[in-house]
User: Fold 6,7-dimethyl-8-ribityllumazine synthase from Marinitoga hydrogenitolerans.
Amino acid sequence: MKVYEGIFDGESLRFGIVVSRFNSFFSEKLLEGALDALKRHNVSEKNIEIFKVPGAFEIPFVVKNIIKKGYDGVIALGVVIRGETYHFEVVANEVSKGIAQINLEAEIPITFGIVTSDSLEQSMDRSGAKAGNKGFEAAMAALEMANLNKILRE
Assistant:
């Protein structure tokens, strides 16, 4: 039996991070978590580029436009919190579909660090409190997938 999996070493890897400014109290914590994961795993600061967008809905547009910039992976970060209107479902569904579609077509992995929550408390929990930091987790997935992608291309 032969098993293929990526490692968590980011030396010489380049990453783009697309992060929403909307709900920035939480999305900035996701960004901090992603940067922490990348730096802890040997990704040089000069190999990380951050693109800030107004809201989660705009994330797929920027991801689509940066996947050809020579990155080994792209990390999408944002927070969508349920409100009193249908807006939550529209944004959460469309950003998810957009990232999924781009991920299937791209030559590099795109990881999904977009929190969709019912409350401020859930958003807090997923951006560094009880449930960990989904930005950190998305960066770890990007590291693993970028290294696996190198194996797949050999």
